[in-house]
Design brief:
By secondary structure, this protein is mainly α. Helix content is about 70%, strand content about 5%.
């Protein structure tokens, strides 16, 4: 029972971090039809910016400033990069974001080097939050869940309770009509892309010190984000949330199990890295539109 509860809490916290990453990618794809290969790179930038800012003025200012900086970079990328190549079609957009990911990684190498940096959990968030039978549950895991849930509620409020949110939702399906009503749709695109980048940056701020901040972190988490988006359903925020929690728990539970799979002569823990991809294949076979997607393909 103790193992189950601890792993469930860890799985939910990891799943919420995945949702913070996948929600930005889902919003961008819903509005612009762009599958951004550089999205995980914004996650990495958030972690490195937070490391640099926290070294100078502390972790809590970094929690605010780093996502804003990443969001500003995202808006510049959309305005002077994606908008320029948009006329050449989706293949050009994919190639642009693919190349951008490499450029960001090389920039990180030049500025911070190839080794991991010492981006640590702040002392005020160290220690146990509560006890689960004989196990201590860290304060920082609870903090990650709090930030993730706050972000989830904020997205819902913005999209359903504000004027800009209603314009964004309308632009998802009827961009020409929204533009005819006098709204600047390209500016909406820029804000949404920047907002998606900022969400990835925020995930980097709270995930970089919980795991590790190094130049390969984008490549490590990038494929999982796309698995989440595909499993949840392309363009579905609710689907991304369900898929994030599902994959977070799947990986967390499987890592902690040392049961041997007799016919393969390996343990369940050894299969943990590949399980999300097996789940994606299964979903694509049984339900190509994803768990909560509205259309196939």
């Amino acid at each position: 029972m103790e193992f189950f509860l601890v792993q469930l809490l860890n799985g939910i916290s990891y799943g919420l971090l995945l949702f913070m990453l996948s929600s930005g990618l889902t919003l961008v794809f819903s509005l612009m039809g762009v599958l951004n290969f550089a999205h995980a790179s914004f996650y990495m930038l958030g972690a490195y910016f937070a490391y640099q800012i926290s070294t100078a003025i502390g972790f809590y200012p970094a929690l605010v400033v780093a996502p804003l900086l990443v969001g500003a970079i995202g808006m510049l990328v959309e305005r002077f990069g994606l908008r320029t190549v948009h006329r050449y079609g989706h293949v050009a957009e994919l190639l642009f974001t693919f190349g951008l990911a490499y450029l960001i990684e090389e920039a990180v190498h030049l500025v911070w080097g190839r080794a991991a940096v010492e981006y640590r959990i702040p002392p005020s968030l160290e220690g146990p939050l509560f006890m689960v039978f004989t196990s201590q549950y860290p304060i920082y895991r609870g903090f990650m869940m709090l930030v993730s849930m706050s972000m989830l509620v904020s997205i819902w409020l913005v999209l359903t309770r504000t004027r800009i949110g209603l314009v964004i939702q309308a632009a998802l399906t009827h961009p020409q009509t929204v533009e005819a009503l006098g709204h600047n749709v390209p500016r909406v695109f820029m804000l949404v892309f920047g907002g998606g980048a900022a969400l990835a940056g925020l995930a980097g701020v709270i995930g970089g010190n919980a795991f590790v901040t190094e130049p390969g972190m984008a490549a490590a988490v990038g494929p999982i984000i796309f698995v989440v988006v595909v499993v949840g359903g392309m363009g579905s925020l609710a689907g991304a949330f369900v898929a994030s929690i599902l994959i977070g728990c799947l990986q967390t539970f499987s890592v902690g199990l040392d049961w041997k799979i007799a016919w393969l002569n390996i343990t369940v823990a050894q299969t943990a890295p590949v399980l999300p991809y097996l789940l994606m294949v299964l979903i694509l076979i049984l339900r190509p539109r994803g768990l909560l997607g509205t259309r196939d393909g």
